[in-house]
Specification:
Elements: H1 15-33, H2 38-61, H3 67-91, H4 96-120, H5 134-141, H6 143-165, E1 170-171, E2 174-175, H7 176-221
Antiparallel strand pairs: 1-2
Helix pairs in contact: 1-2, 1-3, 2-6, 3-4, 3-6, 4-7, 6-7
């Protein structure tokens, strides 16, 4: 059996993964400047977020989709949002609890969903499939809907961050960034609700795996 290197492929230098590394570098630069320079911080943060769409296209175009790339992508997204929420908690201490809950939901729900999905791939049991629901089916299959949900969620936190430094241009006497916050807040709430739903379904699917594994062990003991 040949290794990836022996077969001529090194997944670590696949185009989408290189884009992923660039996203990490931009995110780290953004984290460094978040407390002091909102222009550099938000520019790097938004660029890193936008590259999330390009690495997916690159993976499909070059036929270079990998599990490593998918997990790298997820970790970059989760860490980016988490660090931005941490800074927002510092900037808006009265809403610290909200940001802590938001971080917990984002990290915990995505982790258990991803981990359960990987475990499901190793079994043949019937699992709960959220895509059977018409609303969730639209969420999973329509790239425009998925992009708008993710973009709206990022817009909420990014606009709230910039608003701490400047109100921005005025629209009908109201701050542009404040308008963006109010406009994108419902999207962020719905996105969190979907994450919680992912967590609930993942827990149920994980219980199916547990029950079947326990049955298999019990049958071996007999």
């Amino acid at each position: 059996m040949t290794t990836p290197t022996e077969s001529g492929e090194n997944i670590f230098v696949f185009v989408p993964n290189i884009i992923g590394y660039a996203r990490i570098i931009l995110a780290v630069i953004s984290f460094y400047f978040m407390p002091t320079n909102h222009v550099i911080a938000i520019t790097c943060y938004v660029t890193s977020a936008l590259l999330d769409a390009f690495d997916g296209h690159a993976a499909r175009y070059f036929n270079q989709s990998t599990k490593f790339g998918a997990i790298l992508d997820q970790l970059t997204d989760r860490c980016g949002t988490m660090c931005l929420c941490a800074v927002l908690g510092y900037f808006y201490p009265d809403y610290m609890f909200f940001f802590l809950i938001s971080m917990s939901i984002d990290i915990a729900c995505h982790w258990i969903y991803l981990h359960t999905t990987l475990l499901q791939g190793k079994t043949s049991h019937k699992f709960i499939d959220m895509s059977e629901n018409p609303i969730m089916h639209l969420y999973y299959t329509n790239r425009t809907v998925l992009f708008c949900m993710c973009a709206g969620n990022e817009l909420f936190y990014a606009a709230l961050y910039v608003l701490h430094f400047t109100p921005g241009p005025l629209i009908a006497g109201c701050s542009l960034f404040k308008v963006l916050v109010y406009f994108s807040a419902p999207v962020a709430i719905v996105k969190s609700a979907i994450s919680v739903l992912h967590c609930i379904v993942a827990c149920k699917n994980l219980s199916i795996i547990d029950v079947n594994e326990r049955k298999a062990i019990a049958e071996k003991v007999k």
